Amino acid sequence: MLHPVAGLIALSAFAFAADVSIKEGIVTAGQAVEVTVSNANEVNEDLYPGAVATNLKIGLFNSNYQYWMCSLTDFIPAKNGTVIVIIPPEMGPSGAYYAISAYGLSNPPPNSVWSGFVVRHVPTQYFFLTNGTGIWTPEDISPLLQGQGLIGLWDADIPCSSYPCAQKCAGKQFPDEHAGDAWTLSSTYLICLKKCDGVKIDYDRIKETEDNKPLATHCGSISTQ
Ligand SMILES: *[C@@H]1O[C@H](CO)[C@@H](O)[C@H](O)[C@H]1NC(C)=O
Ligand SMILES: *[C@@H]1O[C@H](CO)[C@@H](O)[C@H](O)[C@H]1NC(C)=O
Questions:
Q1: What does the domain layout of the chain look like in residue ranges?
Q2: Cα-to-centroid distance, 133 and ligand 2 (Å)
Q3: Which of 19, 37, 38, 56 most suits a substitution to test ligand 1, by most atoms within 8 Å of the C-beta?
Q4: 59 C-alpha vs ligand 2 centroid, how far in Å?
Q5: Do the Cβ atoms of 195 and 182 come closer than 8 Å?
Q6: What is the pTM of this model?
Q7: Where in the sequence is the signal peptide annotated (predicted)?
């Protein structure tokens, strides 16, 4: 688990792009938070020259694994201005683990997961969350989940209110160290995860990754990436 300060240094590497910010340093779970979005239509020009972000998704970034944790909105129109979000109390514990983050997407197909990604906006500073009632589990940082939390490498989208459900699913697959990769079409994790409210899973992407894995993976050895 990295110290939050390491996260702030890592985040500053993304300081070329659009931004989200909040006024408060302390946020109460269950209450409205006003998120200010600027440069809403910006894209990462090096990777997506000429594209325009038409939509945003706002969510939480997590200091435990330095990655997107869960979503607070579905796709919303990419506009400068303010968006109200509510962090569900059950999503996680109180503490300075969270930043609000936003991804920009260009014409994402309805019900797609992360298709159309064009930029990761600069997240807020980590803030202190109060009234969080959730917990961390060891599975949150299992290397078998690719060390990127419960959404894998862009393989799923988990609304924050369903994060505890996803944690339970991860608990069913782990800590059995022979359970194997969580990101296969038939994994215990994925079969369970798809039943959690509002979760979207990118099966095409998972299948593609699975097809491209070394043969040994199909014979039951563990791929850690
Ligand atoms: C959004 O804000 C940025 C930065 O201030 C500005 O460059 C851009 O033109 C604005 N976009 C719109 C659609 O107003
Ligand atoms: C935080 O939780 C406590 C205990 O559940 C509750 O009494 C209090 O009203 C909550 N605070 C806010 C600001 O929602």
A1: 6-224
A2: 11
A3: 38
A4: 22
A5: no
A6: 0.84
A7: 1-17
